[in-house]
Amino acid sequence: MAEDSKIHHLGWFLAGLGIGAAVGILYAPKSGRETREDLANSAREGKDYVRAKTQQAAEQVGVLVDKSKEQVSAFVDKSKEQVATLVDKSKDLVDKGKDQVGEYVDRSREVVDRGRAQWEEFVERGKSLVADQSTRVSAAVDAGRNAYRTTTVDPTEL
Predict the structure, then answer these.
(1) What is the DSSP letter of 46?
(2) What are φ and ψ of residue 118, in 5° steps?
(3) pLDDT digits 0-9 by tens, 128-147
(4) Could you tell me the pTM of the whole model?
(5) Measured CA distances, 57 to 19, 46, 60, 68 (Å)
(6) 122 and 114 in contact (C-beta within 8 Å)?
(7) I need a surface site. Which of 45, 80, 122, 150 has the fewest CB within 10 A?
């Protein structure tokens, strides 16, 4: 409803403007021909003014568009360079990480191999000790039997 009121008021304003212009032309101190020429000249001047301002605005917009394109292009180029730098750094870090993991794996293998070799050595030493002690125990048992035989008295001899 508020819009209808505004349109209504605008319509009356334009009607009043038209009536005022018509009355102004009728009561003008100049002749009709002079008034028409003045109106035509004013219309041409207004048209030329609007054309000049439109051309000027178009040129300014063109300049702004060109500057914007340059700025966007520079930003895109800079962003591409930064992304490329980050990708290169990431690849370097991944390569370093792979190298470090490879070194840790190699060291771990060496430690495992040394540990295995030590355990194998300990097992062999244990086998050797068991065999040696078995031989000594057997020798001691044999010596004990022999000593028992030589020191025991035959009951028939008594």
Answers:
(1) H
(2) -65, -45
(3) 999 999 999 999 899 888 88
(4) 0.42
(5) 34, 16, 5, 16
(6) no
(7) 150
